[in-house]
Amino acid sequence: MANEPTTRPSAGSAWQAKQAYAMAAICLAVGLATGYFFRGSQSPAAPVQPAATAQANAPPSTPADGMGGQRPSLEEMKQMADKKAAPLIEKLKGDPNSSDLLIQIGNLYKATHQFKEAAGYYEKALQADPKNVAIRTEMASCLYYNGDVDGAISQLQQALRYDPKDANSLFNLGMIKWQGKQDSKGAVAAWQQLLKSNPQLSADRKATVQKLMADAQMQGKT
Prior knowledge:
This protein is an all-alpha fold. Among the domains are: 73-155, Serine Threonine Protein Phosphatase 5, Tetratricopeptide repeat (Alpha Horseshoe), CATH 1.25.40.10; 164-222, no CATH class. It contains 9 helices and no strands. The chain has helices spanning 11-21, 74-94, 99-111, 115-128, 133-145, 149-162, 167-181, 184-197, 203-221. α5 packs parallel to α7 (167-181) and α6 (149-162) packs antiparallel against α7. The longest helix is centred in the middle third of the chain and has 21 residues, at 74-94. The chain is globular. The termini are far apart.
């Protein structure tokens, strides 16, 4: 992943890269409850970066680890995640159903853009704690980034069965329906439910949702 491929990607691989990284340029919500909402003001039509250059999306705080200040590649980020996760995985051998350990490991892999691995650990954590809506939403994000749009939607719908008012699930459901399924009506419906069931949202968060609704409705008319 560190270098550009020497051969031109096939149509199938290009589609997968588009699905996996469509949100990378604009980011899914990472937690209303912790003060985050929808990061950035980029247009939903922002160009999609190919998987080969996905390292450009590495978090600015990611340590360079001898890279001369340059951001590490996805492979190097995976190596860092493996190293940090190793002691937690060792602990997991003694308590394989520990949702706390599984979530910690999943978080490490998600932070380094290893979405497939992160989703696997989140899935195991949910087997131990299926009603953990926050982790189900995290898993949905990872599935989306990894190209599984339908799987992401399914997880969010299941999260909403546990908590129909969960703001993050509703927000991400709308975003994934819009970006992943080109379903403007479905996206607007999810966001309308978000605003209706969460009247306590701050004015700026409401404005963000309303702006996205307007953009989706405009796009749906074209």
